[in-house]
Fold each of these.
Amino acid sequence: MVDFNSMLAGFQTLASFDAVIALIAGVVGGMIIGALPGFSAAMGVSLLIPITYGMSPVAALTMLVAMYTSAIYGGSITAILCHTPGTPASAATAIDGYQLTKQGRGMEAMGVATLGSAVGGTVSAIAMLLIAPALGAFSLKFSVLEYFLLAVFGLTVIASLAGDSVIKGLFSGVLGLVLGCVGLDAITGYPRMTLGVIQLEDGINFVPALIGLFSISQIMSLAYDVYHGKKGSVIEDEENLKNSRALPPMKELKTLFPTMARCSIVGTVVGIVPAAGAGVSSWICYSMGKKFSKHPEKFGHGALEGVASCETGNNAATGGALIPLITLGLPGSTVAAILLGGMMIHGLTPGAAMFTKHAPTTYAIMIGFMFANILMGLIGLFAARYIARISSVPMGYLGPVIMALCAIGTYSIRNNIFDVGVMVVFGLLGFMLKQCGFAAPPMILGMVLSEICENNWRRAVILANAKGGMLNYFLSRPIAIVLALLIVISLFSPVLMNYVNKKSRAIEKQQ
Amino acid sequence: MKKTQLHQDVWIGFVCLGICFAIFALNMNLPSDAAMMPRLLDVMLTILAVLIIYHGLRKSKLPADQQGPKGLTWDAVKIPLITWGLVVLYAVLFYVTGYFVATGIMIIVMMRFMKRTSWPVILAIDVIYLLLIYFVFVRMLGVSVDDFGLLSSLL
């Protein structure tokens, strides 16, 4: 199923100067964003999208996926050295990582986290190269009804992104779908909810909304932290770290490879499942690592196996999440939803065309993702201790600079000041949503999937009318029936995932 | 008799209902084909808003310490709202003067607002940032952030 000619062409495209620079910038940028507490991979990727506008699709998407995977890894740097997880996915890493730092083995823990992240990410990239083309070829059998059901399947992820209140999360998601309807109706050409504003006839631009929801609202929260005495992170025992070794002894390192292998596979599979993601994967792998360990009693008191298992698991999940995204347009997490928007901006619509018309580009992105993980490992081994220092930069310096970057990033999309206004409005909306207990990620997912969902449904209705009604049409399409069943299963999967996640954490606490 | 204070979710739910009515009003005069999806979604939003109010009323009956965190207090939103006000001013200034003038001023004002006191550091960050953005965005990526606003009319 793997098209070696396209793979070779993709490799050649990736070898271009701009793609290599984009790859390095994405990896380093991701590590920095991930290391900053309060700054997530989602924020990093959303800030990066406007900068990629002038780039080729390969350079742009390679930069975005590199940012994604290395931001997840970057979170572990401060989790281990400062006991401040940079991202939610590295919360499990902080348990054993920080204990090791207190024992003077912080750099060894960092080395294991780096190696584990690189191995997990690379294995998931190889899995993507092997599985995605087959899944892409299968999607050739899809028609509008299947694409509609796929979009609905994607929307079922909302419940898992909802945060503390499922009802508020659903409200946020449905509101996102409504916001996605703003603009000219694709079929009748009638303006909907534009309030007479001409700029809104193209719809609400996704990127300014994204930057507003994630970045501006975060700057507002940072200002609150500054006024309430919250300071940057402090690296534990920095003098000792300078003299410690970068990796544990080979004998000890060898014992970690089976853990990394297991967690790479489990993490990739968890990543493929919509509604799971890197956070859930790290907890599942941590729990599994403990079960398989010869010394489970060391977990929680500074076990290198603990660091290896969750760090391998969370980075493996990033590659896993890209498989349904590229092949079926199914975003399984917040970052995946943002990446879907990024792909569409660069003219890449997920589905069969990714492995026919755009095959060299797709392979270039997938190979780029693999190299990003390897590069992340190499840079991480040498630069982790320096990157950790970034987390101690006062937020009072970072906030205004990020604000200025948001403004130029938003403006440069269409050279339009109206987009800056959209960003500002969505900034307030994002902050108020957070304060009122509504999660912002479902809104983004709703905005991304709204058009796909509505247009395919309406086309499906037209087709169904010509074929004797919707029920007949639906029953004549076995893939649609399977997808409908998957939607039902998916509606219950967050409950199951939540249960597994909570149980894993509860077991950790008990032991 | 002790008066029960309504949980903030009740008021949030009513705001949500207001949003539903606004969406309904905006889609009232649309042809049915174009209005189908927004109307369907509006019905869903209304149901969810009612559920938020219902849960808010249930939370109101609980003792104050079991009602969960309240994010909508004046103390929690005051500083962020002032920050947002600065962001709005920055956007207006961006429109009037162009990116570089507006950003130069905004970085200084915002850093001072965020309790940074070292003028040399503030000015150094400001100048380095503006130079970097000029070379990357204007020279390399060709983004025309300097061809409108006050600065463009002076140049």
Amino acid sequence: MSTSVVAQRRAAARPAAWIDRLRHRPAWLALAGLVVLCVVAVAGVMFGSVAVPAGDTLAILAHRLLGWPVIVTWPASAETIVVELRLPRVLMALAVGAALSLAGVALQGLLRNPLADPYVLGTASGAALGAALALLVPVQFALLGFGLIHVLAFAGALGAVAIVYRVSRLGGLSSLSSVLLTGYAIGSLLAAGLAITMYLSGQTLRQIFFYLLGSFSLASWPQVAVGLPIIVLGTAVLLTRARSLNALLLGEETAAHLGLDVRRERLVLLAAASLVTAAAVAMTGLIGFVGLVVPHVVRLVAGPNARALLPLSAIWGAAFLAMADLIARVSGELPVGVITGVIGAPFFLFVLRRYRGGYEL
Amino acid sequence: MSGVSLELRDLTLSYGARRAVEKVTARVDAAEMVALLGPNGAGKSTLLRAVSGSANGVSAGGARRTGQVLIDDVPLDEYDGASLARIVAVVPGQSRVAFPLRVEELVALGRIPHEHPLLGPRAADHAAIDAAIERVGISALRGRDVRELSLGERQLAVLAMAVAQAPRLLLLDEPTVHLDLRHQVKVMQLLRDLAKRDGVTILAVMHDINLAAHFFGRLLLLDQGRLVADGRPSDVLTPDRIRTVYGVDPALVAVARS
């Protein structure tokens, strides 16, 4: 193929002018994202197996959250559904969506690999194995909505990253491709452990399977109370790493030349990303695609500057996952991981086709 | 802004038992423009990386360092990474971009050492970015994806990033490799201009002897990690040295000495 043909194709693949202008207006994208987020959040509280009218929903929210003196005209059951069941669920979906997207941004940036997602360093397999083992234990306990499954999934996710970190000597000066390969190897090992656990699980197989697909159906206020602070903390740390992620765009050596303490930033980015991923996975199971797709789509529209990429990914990731959960709920409690895949994959393909400038792998 | 001096004292760099650079002593004065020459594997890039930011006696390239590197007469280890990055800029041999990145966004990365750590670039940073793009002459490329550029254009963009960093010492690793003649000359003229007008100290690893001899007033010649010559091009590039160091017929680089 001649160079001019390549050039023509690339020119044809450049985005439309209005999208191009948005790249210099990240504040608009953030504003639009917040509007979408609010709409999705309210819709998420309204709809479900029982629909609560919009007026009642807003009145209940204003009454309970903002303390407005609204005259109670709704049935008590509606208030219970909105406040006790749906509100924690929507909050959880927003938090997990933001967390997974930011973890994706951080790991793609740190590993400089477009294929990286929050689960790339073994978190997913570790959490899944932990959860499966918890389900195998004959004695189950639950305290404030937390069971062994949450504890072991959280520990499994963090344990897997810790092993990858140690084995690949990420704290030293190992190359990042060896980190990825180590993550893959450890992940495979844990997945084998998961497979044997599932093989031996008998009746709990369905529960394990359900966990692997992810769901917000068990979200509760105690879960929000424990999970949200961890996610908010990790998210806050990640949001301050824009400078590091920008410096890392051209690789670690250039980042060092730009004055970055590369070793420390590796640790900070990895710890924060792993923490939020572990918290998210422990509470809601494995929700795929959010952490991979949201950063890419935002990057294609807003550019790779992490000062825009981080907050925009958090906002749009939160809105996307809350919407996916809403769809999961109104379609009869399908696992939300299925919805993110079904919406996410085709949309991602569409975006990639539009921007054929593509990636250098 | 004026340049800073660079001094190497008995600098030895080793990867395990192998010594890539051995007991090199040299001084580059402020606003001087010096080229580092030598055959492949002579230790040029290793030496450059040792100067370009490191800690605990380990160079940026991972080599163990003994001896001293002084920048502005202060030992390298006494600088912290951030303050060193405000003094020294590095143009690497090749840079790979993992994500779609526009030229202006690439150049903006040069401001990272200067910009506010949390709030990001301010008006002065934006002005420096615009000025760097203007100076390197790549205004027409501003909005282009770096990965769509030719190697020559990409090199100019990376140079603009280094210019935006406003360094007082500029280190370059083979800045003209892969470039056509026009781009080679353009890069050389830019370096000369930076040294003359802004007083930036320049140390560049050069693979092209003729180009180095033409544009640099002083050459350092490395062979198997040792500094074998240091001086004006005509004194350094003697026929004997070219034969022993490069192992080629000196007539091939005769142009250099004329």
Amino acid sequence: MNDESTTKPDYSVEVEIHDSAYFKVVWAHGLRYRPYLIDRGDVQAVSGQIRDQLSALVGNALRREREIALHNDNAVEAANKDEHEIMETLIERCAELFEVLFRCAPGSSATQAYVHEHIRDKIRGERSGKSICFLVKPRVYVPWGLLYDGTLAPDADPTNPDDYAGFWCLKHQISTVFDALASPSDFVVTYDNGVFQTLSIGDAAEFTKAELVLKECLEEQGAIDMLRKRHGSPATTSETLIKAWTDCERTLGLLYFFGHADAKNIGFSATDTISVVKFKNVLIKSGTSPRCLVFLNGCYTTNPDENGTFLEATGRDGFCGYIGAETEVPATFAFRFGLAFQCLLYRGLEVVEIMSQLRRKHWPLSLVYGLYGFPHVSVTHHPEIGKVALPEANYSTGPLGERIV
Amino acid sequence: MNQNLPRLNRGPREWPTQPYKGFSSYGPNDVPLFAGREPQVVDFARLVGEPNTQLVLLQGATGCGKSSFLRAGLIPFLEGRLRGFEFRKEKEEGRPSKAVFIRSTDEPLQKLAEETFKLACEGYSFTSPVGEEQVNLSEALFNETLMDDFTRRVINQPSSLVESLRIIAAALPVILVLIVDQGEEVLSLSSGRDVENRRAKYFQFLASFATSNFPLKLIIALRTDHFGVFYNNIRRRSSERMNIVDYLLENLGTSQLLEAIKRPTERRPVLDYPPPDYGFEFDEGLPERIVQDLSKTAEMGGLVGGNCRYCKWCVRRYTNRRRSVGDRGRLHRKTILSLGRSKHN
């Protein structure tokens, strides 16, 4: 193991189930640190509470949008106040997750002092922008990007990400990877824009609704047209998806889904869905084709399930993981976020950088998205799509659309 | 980009001095010569690497190359590229060398207990970002200070070895993999008294180990003809869900044999190695002819010990003969015919 060297990511941390009570945690910074155990129940409980707060944040934003439309100023003011409180509670939970991550359980090889001094405090002392990758095993469903180190100023402004600098996802480049054999040195993947292919799939009605909302927005219409011209129209049934997959999987770099979803299914309509199991059995990459990133832009796609989720389904040969949502997402917001993501890919940015940019720009609802894939995936700069202008607006300020649950 | 090719540990990239192995197994220094098995190595590594996998049964015919597959295929693959796996190693001059293959014999539980005792006594040293570290594993010994006492405890209570291994797994910064070789010996050897009881204790341990799930793996390599009985002996001891998988290592097929024969004459870099320079090449169609001859002999039941073992032997003889007759680097069929038949067919 002394062949390890410092490359991207700067830090990796393996988290896996040790037994019914504990996760085993092994940090590495080039070389590995001593392992330690953390309380599995605490991690899972606080992860659930974080998702609850994100759900409350989305619900409150939707409520505020309705009140704005009704010109109900008092109710809008109340929603703004609630948002502040929801963010406060969210930070408390995320700070608790941080505490739990570095709290040694009995039976650990490393001492508490070792973990605090040599690992936690070392990372605290790092300059921002470090790539930190959580390498997780099955049934470890934790929103690691939302770890929060620090306290929140009482006058923090929920619309200003700079007031929430304790979030690791703002300070560093955080990713989570599930792949038993993935090696950190695999995480740098660069596609040639000449062959990079995106396959869009999802619910036709949701695509249409979102595009209708944006029909006046010339920049986004231009981006939609350009991507469609290059990659074709979305596959909007499971049958067309399977045919399209067979046709293009050898050059496919991104599978982009937009529509109804949950932890175990993605939907094309109320009656046409693809389960995690079917996703795994049907969407298979052939041996020589490049790895494919998946963006599951629907509700709850990163939520836990004891029988397996898209984390496992996209953490296998031919895939490099996925981007998903920790809770429900409003349709128009989600559509715009996904469109911006696809355009930024052609600017030559790495996926983890794109997520960082979008998280900051479309704060705070951007917090619902988590990167559960290889962090350093990129496409070479495309001179045409790469210069597509995107709106300056923060998508969290609306229009949001309805939940796509 | 081919994500499936095994990537290897860093270090000097030198080809072994001999292009073929004869009857000996491939070892950690023969990685570039170990050809034709890459897809199986990746498949098997994925099985072993699955977090839900605890116990792995690697089955194959005698001489199909199980040891080579492990030493020159699986081990370099899993230990390479920061994957976080590590096999228990022998120590030479205080430094880890080749992986320990625990010989099953008819007392495998005792052998495993002895190896665990040694590991726990030695502890585990590694270099962390903090510096040199020594992990104390003595907790896994349950206050036993003598190997005999520890072994007796394990034999009386096989599940205590599972507990020892669990303690070790929690303390190591890597996922440790242990290998038991000649696994069938627990069934095929029957020397000594109390054979049935010893077998029963071993399979109790395996059942208990397979129903647990912690980051430490045990691979048992055994002959296919004993696999069914072996597997059944584990399964029937517990009704709980077991984290056990098996993998059949088949004899090399035609294309794989060809790849293995041609590998030392490659003109391109192989894995992370430069192109080999063994100073010979085959006459056109000769490797295909060798494979054809081997297949015929195998069909007639003339190969004992698997075609890959025989293949290694005869190709090695060809190349040795070529060197002795100074054939300017090209091997012809007449040279081969002059070699005669192997004593092993």
